[in-house]
Design goal:
Elements (H helix, E strand, L loop, with lengths): L8 E4 L6 H31 L6 H18 L2 H7 L5 E4 H34 L4 H4 L2 H26 L9 E2 L6 H5 L7 H32 L5 H30 L6 H24 L2 H20 L1
Parallel strand pairs: 1-3
Antiparallel strand pairs: 1-2
Protein name: Olfactory receptor
Family: Belongs to the G-protein coupled receptor 1 family.
GO molecular function: G protein-coupled receptor activity; olfactory receptor activity
Amino acid sequence: MARTNNVTELIITGLFQDPEVQRVCFVLFLPVYLATVLGNGLIVVTVSVSKSLRSPMYFFLGYLSLVEITYSSTVVPKFITDLLTKVKTISFKGCLAQIFFSHFFGVTEILLLVVMAYDRYVAICKPLHYMNIMNRQLCHTLVAGSWLGGFIHSIIQVLITIPLPFCGPNVIDHYFCDLQPLFKLACSDTFVEGIVVLVNSGLISVLSLIILVSSCVIILFSLRNRSAEGRRKALSTCASHIMVVILFFGPAIFIYMWPSSTFTGDKLVAVFFMVITPMLNPIIYTLRNAEVKIAMRKLWGKKENSGMGT
């Protein structure tokens, strides 16, 4: 049976309907997005040029910050500009592209967080073998595997959506394109597709969270016989990672494991992990990491000195 698709353009309801509230949101979210790009971009540059940040942990942190920029940029710029428009529209192909890239970068971030947890496990539990285990080749393989995993996940999401018939209506109840609200517009039953999304998105989050929590438990268990200073350093390193994991995984599991019927709760939760969390990550990692802060001071110190020299 041929696919029926009379929908070429979608109308997005947005986060709020009140124009005044939308303008307030614009004033609030624009600085947040700029801080996300600048903060994560600063980490990427610092890790790339600083000779003191050559360990695998900072190699992964640089890629995590890069993914944060791309992940947020798939949705937030259009979301912010839509706050100033009365009718918010997106083409059907643009909608599919937004779904693909948001899931691509989102799952890549999840897998990078798992990789970083493994890196911390090896560093703390097997310190004498750390550099041999986390060699350059393995680090590149783990990063490439994270990107590949994100691609496979997102291409599955798009491939199950393309065959669906869309014959109207064309109003999507969200502030960006995502699978659950888009499925509501299909002219056929999407129960099977919904299950696939649940397995593909929700279980990735849950299983990754289980791995991350397990690694933290193993690390804490291994610290029993360490000195107080050793425990403090290890816990400080893990604390930053745990905070980021909670901020990212909590909302993601809420949306994909317990989808609501009105999407009002989903929209508010999605704002948090799509807009707010990417801004908080560089703050969390830099404020609790002396090496990153020192490297940033040296980087800016060199720039200031070179500027004075010219």
